[in-house]
Each structure stands twice: as C-alpha cells, then as structure tokens.
Fold this protein.
Amino acid sequence: MVEKETDEKSYAVKTTVTSFRILEAVHELEKAGVSEISEALGLSKSTVYKHLSTLESTGYVLKEDGSYKVSLGFLRFGEAARMRKKIYQVAKDHMEELASKTNEMSNLVVEEQGRGILLYRATSNKAVSLDTYVGKEVPLHSTGNGKAILAHLPRQRVEEIIAEHGLPKASENTITEPEALFKELESIRERGWAYDEGERIEGLRCVAVPIMTPEEVVLGAISVSGPASRIEGDRFREELPDLLLRAKNVIEMDIAYK
C-alpha cells in the first residue's frame, strides 16, 4: 500500500512539473501552437495537447486560432503575492518619486530562489525602453539590484546561488568568476551601493542600494538605471548614490516602524 502511494505521488509531481514546463514555454513564446511547444520542450504532441486542454479548461491558458497563450488568471496570484511584500507596499511611491526626480527608470527587486524578481518598476517620459517588466526574473550577479542583494547575503547562501544558477555571461562586462564576484560584493558593502556598468545590457548603467531590516537582513534593493550617455561622471558616482541612500533611509524607517 505504501509503495502504491509513493508511486502515485511521484506520478503526480512529474505531471505537475510537465504542466509548469508547458506554461513557461507558452509564456516565453508569447503565443504558440502544440507543435511549436512540443518541439521546444522535446515532448510528444499528445502530451502537450492533454496538458494544454486541462490548463484551458481551468482557465489558465487561452486558445485563439489554434495557438495558446497564458491567461490573466495568473494575475490575481501574482498581485496577491506582491501585496504581501511589505517592501513593495512601502517602496512603490518612492520608486515613482525617484523616476520623476531623475527622469530615468527606477526598479525594486527582491531575491527568490536565487533569482532576482522585479517587484515594481517606475518610468519617466525620458526613460529608455528595456526588456524588463514586473515579475521578470533577472540574474543577481549581473545587475545592480542583484549585486546589492548578494552583498548582504551570507557567503554560504551566495555560493549556493552560484552553484545552482552559475554566473552566465550576458555582456562583455559581466562578472563570470566567483572570486571576482566576491571581491565586488566586498566593495559594495564598504561603499554602501552597487554599480552595474553594462553587465547585463551593454550601454546601460545602474546604481542600486539594498533595503535592510534593523536586524541587517536584506529585503531587496532599489535602483535607478539609464543609458550610459546620461548616467556618467558625478551623476553616476555621487548624485544618484546620494539620492538612493536618502530614499533607502526613509523606506527602511517606514518598514521598521509603520
């Protein structure tokens, strides 16, 4: 009897994993048919079709003209998860203020399962268009926000993240060696803020600061990013760090005492 239950659990887990793999493929492809998803994942068309039919019947994917796309059914989960983050509730208005003051893009990122998750983004009418959106996963080692977070995690946790996700190269400026990254993280702790000098996207610069609890636990990071042609010199090295540190101070006080 125990063996049967174990087999059933193993099957259920495998089936769930397959469904989520298919959902992720639909999301990444934006809109795709059974054949395209089957080829992308190396699964049989019949398997893909069965999972998609189930997901469609439960309202989590939509079918239009023979192609599937993720439905808005996931929006309530994502928004509910985001609203539970106190850092989001406190920081979002400050993100808007930073974007307005700098005429650039401001971002709020948290770490989850070793990846950076963009929790909030504010833009100005002069901000450049990027590939980012709320909910997007970004590597921690190649972004300003990510490095600001890593700098305040225990070394063992950082080593676990590197072991799981690696240090993939996104541009010529990406840090891809563990010891070089640890040296950079030490500099960030000493300085108080992190720089991204085109490490994920060439030509883009970013300044980021961590958001901490009174117990020195890192909750996430906030940043301002923009084209290197506008973020340079004293603005990059002094003005933006000072602006972010002041916002950090207010956000941390609100989180601790509101």
